[in-house]
Amino acid sequence: MAALQRKTGLGKGLGALLQQDDIGTAKSTPTEVPVAKSPASPAGSINFIKVEQISINPFQPRTDFDEQALRELSESIEIQGLIQPITVRQVGKNEYQLISGERRLRASKLAGITEIPAYVRTANDQQMLEMALIENIQRENLNAIEIALSFQRMIEECSLKQEELGDRVSKNRSTVTNYLRLLKLPPVIQAAIRDGDLTMGHARALINVGEVDKQLFIFREIVEKGLSVRKAEQLVREVQQAKDKKQKGKQDAGLNFQFQKIEDDLASKFATRVKLNLKSAKGKGAIEIPFDSEDDLSRILELLDW
């Protein structure tokens, strides 16, 4: 199987990659692609490395791999060989650490491949984390939660600001912010996003809801009723409007209480019923002090020092 891998594993795809890295001139047949075979692999070269010598990247942001997709890729590799090399860094004699390509490495092991082509690069831990994240975002379609967790790690461990992170991954700051806000959602909602039961569009609608109980209510409505993103956004607006109306009702109730107290105090002062009439939301209005006779009017005027 290893012999078959050496013969067919490179192909035209790797030839194109070789041209990009200026390592050599790609030929039309895979046997003519120059491949380094020295145990001490110089940085930037491409080598056949035994899979048993490659350890998993501890900074790998991907945590879930679709088993069916892995089996399909494994079958393809078994027949066609590995077209796209993985990327590693050398950490000792015949010891390598994966930078990117864990899915390809796993599928190659399933196919029984004993050695695979790999780029050998020099990278420190920060570069390892950045390179693994960027490579996976571009090629492996991480779910939104994995991306958010990776962004958070880069900010915390690489001391990057959101704008700097956006530059690294070619995304604007608002996009980075929206991903990071996903991590503030309740765990059950994060799990649904991770498992593909909730789209990023649904998630963006939910992160605009402040209260956890309302987020969970809308989430259950989305799942149980199969709401589209547009319907979910509409539900969010309705919930927010109900909240605003409730708050306004509380404010009005407080204002009415204050006016009632003023009316009661004035009624006590003038020994007659007093009415406050509001004529606008800005506080304009009038005070009505009724009287029963001229004598009653004179009494009230005396109290007003008229």
UniProtKB/TrEMBL annotation:
This one is known as ParB/RepB/Spo0J family partition protein
Zinc found in the keyword field: no
Which PANTHER family does UniProt cross-reference here? Answer: CHROMOSOME-PARTITIONING PROTEIN PARB-RELATED (PTHR33375)
- Provide this UniProt record's keywords sorted from A to Z: Chromosome partition, DNA-binding
One Pfam family name from the record? HTH_ParB
List the residue ranges of the region (Disordered): 21-40
Q: Does the keyword Cytoplasm apply?
A: no
Stated family: Belongs to the ParB family.
Residue ranges of the ParB-like N-terminal domain?
47-137
